[in-house]
Amino acid sequence: MSSGTFGITREKKIISSGARKVFTPHAPVDDISHFFGREEEASRFVSVINTDGLHVLVYGDRGVGKTSLAITTCRVLLQGIMKGGKYIEKRCDSSDTFESIALKVLQALEINHQNRETTQTTNEGGKASVKIPIVGAEVDSHRQSAVKILHQVNLSSPSWVAEQIQSKAGIFLIDEIDAVADKEDRKKLAELVKLLSDNKSQLKIVLVGIASTGADLTAGHPSIQRCLKEVHLKRMNDDDVRKIIHNGFKKIGQIPTEDVVKTITDISAGLPHFTHLICLKCAEASVISGNKHVGTDVLKAALNESVKDSENALKDSYTNCLHNFNKPHEYKIIVQGAAHCKGVEFRASDIQQQIKVFVKFDVDQKVVSRRLIAIAARADSIMEKCGRGYYRFVDPRMPSFVKMLHGADAQSAV
Ligand SMILES: Nc1ncnc2c1ncn2[C@@H]1O[C@H](COP(=O)(O)OP(=O)(O)OP(=O)(O)O)[C@@H](O)[C@H]1O
Ligand SMILES: [Mg+2]
């Protein structure tokens, strides 16, 4: 077997090429040398963190690069300005609550989070001295009364948590807060930020999550705007996407053609996950073939691999949506046309134009309109109506996925 048992020989070649260190579709960037663009957002982030009483909220669509911006900027900050500050990271999932998030920061800061008892001794003259623990108690009078005090941990109270952590310095990054299901928990997080801000704590909170407005992530807490500054991360611009492609291939000694760079940039549509995914598949194929030039033939095969490696959620919703129609091929063309539209929102006439250009097919606008209505009317559809005659994809990553699929289809036709 040329690729060795279970493809081990192939894997060894790819690993030693360094391609998977440079192109990381499934992991955020945490190293400044792999981080491109975002200058404006990163400087806003830095200046907010360095202002007393201010904390940061990074929000935007899925996969735009929120975690990468937050982690890379925090690293730079901790190495440069906030030397000695602690970095704590918490990735939330649907089982997380305010308590579990609070527990993470207390543990990381090595703050006691168990109920404990101390003894307060009162001397006859009324002078009190408290020693913790009890065995270390010092008494300067023969007559004394001892009172046991129970220090009760209250993880569900933002003010209790704030009291414990506010004297510390560092950054607490709380990622994927959109996954925290209960609004009350998100509200409490906002309250914690407010309390740390009021006390000018040097422990800065960075909240990160998928949302179209910052308020979605803080459950609309009314007085949070003053101390929690928002960084709305939009899609990357094409120049920065091209930088990811050129720099990445250069690092591993490969040379993509201009056509390849153009197609990857177009498919990415400002979502760097797709840039990394397609580049990685191209790089792997080139490493195996031993040809450092990455041309359109390599790209087409790479698109096929990229589709296979895409998130199941995207593949399933696309397949489920189309396969229930009588003539799925006709609907597929409508979806492809929609994926190629320039704006996020599109009309039947826009789709008709794109079908002409990309699918080389002349279709009546009324037919497009009827199909569009039928697609959007489906439960769990990939498209939705967003205004009179206007539609959009429910998942903003879907157009890139559809374009990859279209490119991979073109491959099978060759
Ligand atoms: N500024 C950047 N330069 C280069 N690559 C980037 C940049 N930002 C993000 N990426 C890449 O894009 C992909 C998505 O990034 P990231 O995980 O940070 O996005 P996200 O918005 O946090 O995604 P999610 O919504 O799924 O949490 C990753 O492959 C990451 O390596
Ligand atoms: Mg993320």
Structure explained in plain terms:
There is one protein chain. Helix content is 49%, strand content 16%. Helix 5 (98-108) runs parallel beside helix 6, helix 10 (258-268) runs antiparallel to helix 11 and helix 14 packs across helix 16. It folds into four domains: 5-27 and 237-308, Helicase, Ruva Protein, domain 3 (Orthogonal Bundle); 38-107 and 167-233, P-loop containing nucleotide triphosphate hydrolases (Rossmann fold, 3-Layer(aba) Sandwich); 116-151, no CATH class; 312-413, Orthogonal Bundle (Arc Repressor Mutant, subunit A), CATH 1.10.10.10. The protein has 17 helices and twelve strands. 36% of the residues are buried. The two termini are 27 Å apart. Magnesium ion (MG) binds at residues 66-67, 175.
What is the CATH architecture annotation of the largest domain? 3-Layer(aba) Sandwich
Secondary-structure element pattern, one letter each: HHHEHEHEEEHEHEHEHEHHEHHHHHEEH
Strand order of the largest sheet: 2-6-7-1-8
Helix content: 40-55%
Shape: globular
Strand content: 15-25%
Largest sheet: 5 strands, parallel
Oligomer: single chain
CATH class of the largest domain: Alpha Beta
Radius of gyration: 28 Å
Task: Work out the count of structural domains.
Answer: 4
CATH superfamily of the largest domain: P-loop containing nucleotide triphosphate hydrolases
Number-wise, the strands total: 12
The kinds of small molecule bound in this structure are: adenosine-5'-triphosphate, magnesium ion
Secondary structure topology:
Blueprint (H helix, E strand, L loop, with lengths): L7 H10 L1 H4 L16 H11 L5 E6 L5 H15 L5 E6 L6 H11 L7 E8 L4 E4 L12 E8 L6 H8 L3 E7 L7 H16 L3 E9 L3 H4 L10 E6 L4 H14 L3 E2 L1 H11 L3 H18 L3 E2 L1 H13 L3 H12 L4 H13 L7 H12 L5 H13 L5 E5 L2 E4 L4 H16 L1
Bound molecules: adenosine-5'-triphosphate and magnesium ion.
Magnesium ion binds next to helix 4.
